[in-house]
């Protein structure tokens, strides 16, 4: 399964089976996490077989069941760390899909105090990605039309990038982003600069790159 195929196949899943993650998949995720940490100067961590962060926690938006495995997005609080967390989190979510796992991006509806992660004084737990074998494969969320999310552009690479961006998970599925191209320079804008919006920016950026091909454009 290619990354683009994984983007199309992935949907948010909140209910999981109790099937444990095989050692080979755990090793593959850890290797990918190591690469993301090096590239993004992050401290992302994989937590397996621990349900403390989701047990007996009733969120305001979406309930979870049998979440025992998750990717903890930890970053040093400097620069554009929210954007980087979203960007590399999206990469890891797609990697999990390629490995046959289901997933769900979670920024607030979990118990952060019970996450088994290592945090330095200058680091923040930005959010987690629940992973595992879902009770179902989920379903496609409702999306805004492409015309509402970008400035019209006839270039094929841009259209392909937008098709992937429309499928990106965003906070509360609001899709509060807008993308436009000036020649081969692409810019992405959000309605505000809150942490969730910055995280969404990173997620959408990664999706756009997979659809458009990084060799076809530059970020403005």
TrEMBL record:
Lineage, broadest ranks: Bacteria, Bacillati, Bacillota, Clostridia, Lachnospirales
Name of the protein in its database record: Histidine kinase
Gene3D superfamilies tied to this protein: NADH Oxidase
Presence of the UniProt keyword Ribosomal protein in the record: no
Superkingdom as given in the UniProt entry: Bacteria
InterPro entries found in the cross-reference section: Nitroreductase-like, TM1586_NiRdase
UniProt keyword list: Kinase, Transferase
A molecular function (GO) term: oxidoreductase activity
Putative nitroreductase TM1586 domain segment(s): 5-212
